[in-house]
From TrEMBL, chains A, B:
The protein's Enzyme Commission number: 1.8.2.1
Listed Pfam families: Mo-co_dimer, Oxidored_molyb
Protein name: Sulfite dehydrogenase
PANTHER family found in the cross-reference section: SULFITE OXIDASE, MITOCHONDRIAL (PTHR19372:SF7), SULFITE REDUCTASE (PTHR19372)
Principal EC category: oxidoreductase
Ranges of residues in domain Moybdenum cofactor oxidoreductase dimerisation: 294-411
Keywords associated with the record: Metal-binding, Molybdenum, Oxidoreductase
Cofactor entry: Mo-molybdopterin
Organism (species): Hoeflea alexandrii
Length: 427, 427
């Protein structure tokens, strides 16, 4: 087994930008059914096991349940060398261990700018001020009296994959793509609150501010605020988790995670965008000519194969192999995902499975019969706006090599004959 | 506040079967927007709070996250006097605290017959034997090589609400309706495994057997097995929880929870149903004439208002009030939910919100402007087969008063002028 806790670049990976496409599976492999007959003498079948012999624990043991002890590897992981301090850092969702489109709350990646604020909901307030007819302050109880809605959305950090701009670096999709999660949010459409306050005609922008130690602040155009934003207090049915903004966070569907202000305490209406730290020196894209793109809010169409991947190698040898991954677009739904086994020479359309919801993760599968040859796996997503996920080189050609944010380039995994998987690039 | 940890019958509730419908809100209340302007002197607004002043914990603290300390009341609860021992008992999902349609894994109710089996997935096997061409034994890795699917299903214990057959008993929807949860299951369609084994032409029934200390066994007709059953290894994206059958459980969509065999270890194909304990002395419905209904598998159309409810009283006084609840049907989707504020004299159609998926929970809302009068709240669901949720008295008329299972009768909550809610019945 590979060491899945070590995301450091391998020597090989760093030099593999021009990995040769040789000796790969020719053409499309065909999905086949799997299953194996076992020898009749297997003691796990013929002998009574302890769990069948002795009573287990009762229903009074775990008021709030936890995962199995055998799933101890399915955790968020941070990368200590990535930032100066863990209170202003990132940990990553273990995408390689998950399936479907919902991320369990305990595994949703964290990105903090001043650590997790711990707030008693009884002491939390949301203020709306600025260019409004009536400035308002809401308690949590006030907010729960408005009509509410439930929507499934992905939340992706703008920096997801940022370390990969200059070449394959991190050996695992948890680290290359794990700054994303997807949950069901329950909250009040933001437009209801703005209507309650009465936005003045020159109120064209909104400043969202968090109550944490970083007082995170971002400018949001009024059109978006009135369109599909939510002021959310629940995720996956229960209260937001502390690290996700408990008791209140803003949802800005399809847009970069930094704008989804956690511990939301204030919404100021203004007539032009602000120029806060997190939308000037950060969360802008430095181009090759020294200029910076700003207001790059939408998370573009993207996908990644989550298994096989460096942390989820093929351990069962030849034969039936489930290739699976995630696709998403901040513009809407995913219409199609193609998968290549040979680094882009030939493509097959993957099977999309589960609900297809706008601005939510989509799950795809390609069931193949692996002949044991090397693979260069890639996935390429297309959204309902007709946008197609670009290659990393196309991105670099357009934006240079200084960027951190908005890397939606196609990811390549190399699978060797033994099923070991590495992060590589193909030119 | 009411004591939400005490489900014991109140004296009042026990005598309220013929609760009088007097002094209630006349006619339909109209939804209205809420929100309150606060005084400018609120120190929570004017003063900097600790969570804004001091850095919080970093991303290295919680590899697997937990709920906020302020949500300590949002837990499963068992009722010690209900059964002789907690290893063969029930705890209940806190429906009154949840929203949307997804139940977090840590809050999914438990029902065990021999406690929770703890099984290392490396040691788990699934055998298919009986009337098949090739008996098979699968490891977990084998199963994960088959094409898999993701589906959202509710799982309801047949005994959900069983304590209420003879009258209003338990003061809280956690206890009256909390033997239900709804998650996204990931697994292999059972028909793929049966096709691999090759079911003989006289193979008309399946015996599903668990690996726990109760060796739970249930008979399932082959038509259902080949239709929509799943052999599931994930729930809400991550591995099944131990108390939900880790590493493998059978999903029998829309049918009673007892058939969703946990810790699934064997599937035997036969030519007629078995007569196991859990489908003869248990999970049959004793009628008034002493005969018992059996093979009552489908969970019928049902709904409940989760808030307001006895554990979720109205604490904010008059004005905008969100009434919300859940509806479901083992036959398919929910087409409509009606809500009455006056014990059934007048009905309003509730707003269904979120995805409408077959054999899954549906969330409904009715946003009203409460004038502070007493309410007799009920919800009534209709499914896409045209079936309508009956009253409890209609159920008793049809099946007598001996039943425990399959109580899908309409629930009534009485809300008094102070917003206190109790479990009552109306004749």
């Amino acid at each position: 087994m590979v060491d899945i806790t070590d995301p450091k670049p391998t020597k090989k990976a760093a030099s593999r930008r021009d990995f040769l496409k040789a000796g790969l599976l020719g053409g499309a492999a065909v999905a086949a059914s799997a299953g194996a007959a076992r020898a009749a003498g297997d003691p796990l079948i013929t002998e009574i096991q302890d769990w069948n012999r002795y009573l287990g624990e009762g229903v009074d043991v775990a008021p709030y349940g936890k995962p199995s002890e055998f799933e101890a590897n399915v955790v968020r992981r941070n990368v200590p060398w990535l930032t100066a301090d863990p209170v202003s850092s990132i940990n990553f969702t273990p995408l390689h261990e998950l399936d479907g489109i919902i991320t369990p709350n305990g595994l949703c990646f964290e990105r903090h700018h001043g650590g997790t604020a711990i707030i008693n909901p009884a002491d939390h307030r949301l203020m709306i001020n600025g260019l409004v007819d009536t400035p308002l302050v809401f308690t949590m109880e006030d907010l729960k009296r408005f009509p509410r809605e439930n929507r499934v959305y992905f939340l992706e950090c703008a920096a997801n994959g940022g370390m990969e701009w200059r070449g394959a670096q991190l050996n695992g999709c948890q680290f290359t793509h794990g700054m994303i999660h997807c949950v069901v949010y329950t909250g009040v459409p933001l437009r209801y609150l703005l209507e309650e306050a009465g936005v003045k005609t020159n109120g064209k922008w909104l400043l969202a501010e968090g109550a944490d130690a970083s007082a995170m602040t971002r400018s949001i155009p009024m059109e978006k605020a009135l369109d599909d934003c939510l002021v959310a207090f629940k995720m996956n049915g229960e209260a937001l988790r502390p690290e996700q903004g408990y008791p209140l966070r803003l949802c800005v569907p399809g847009w970069e995670g930094n704008m989804w202000v956690k511990w939301l305490r204030r919404l100021e209406v203004g007539d032009e965008p602000w120029a806060q730290r997190e939308e000037t020196s950060k969360y802008t894209d430095l181009l090759a000519d020294g200029k910076a793109r700003r207001h790059t809010w939408v998370m573009d169409v993207k996908s990644v194969i989550t298994s096989p991947s460096p942390q989820a190698p093929v351990t069962h040898g030849k034969g039936p192999l489930v290739i699976t991954g995630l696709a998403w677009s901040g513009n809407g739904t995913i219409k199609r995902v193609d998968v290549t086994l040979d680094g882009g020479r030939t493509w097959q359309t993957a099977r999309l499975d589960g609900p297809s919801l706008p601005k939510a993760l989509h799950r795809f599968y390609l069931d193949i019969n692996w002949d044991g040859s090397e693979l260069l796996l890639q996935s390429r997503a297309m959204d309902d706006q007709g946008l197609v996920q670009p290659t990393k080189n196309e991105l670099r050609l357009a934006r240079g090599e200084n960027s951190i944010y908005h890397n939606n380039g196609i990811q390549t995994w190399h699978v060797n004959n033994d099923g070991v998987v590495e992060n590589v690039e193909v030119s």
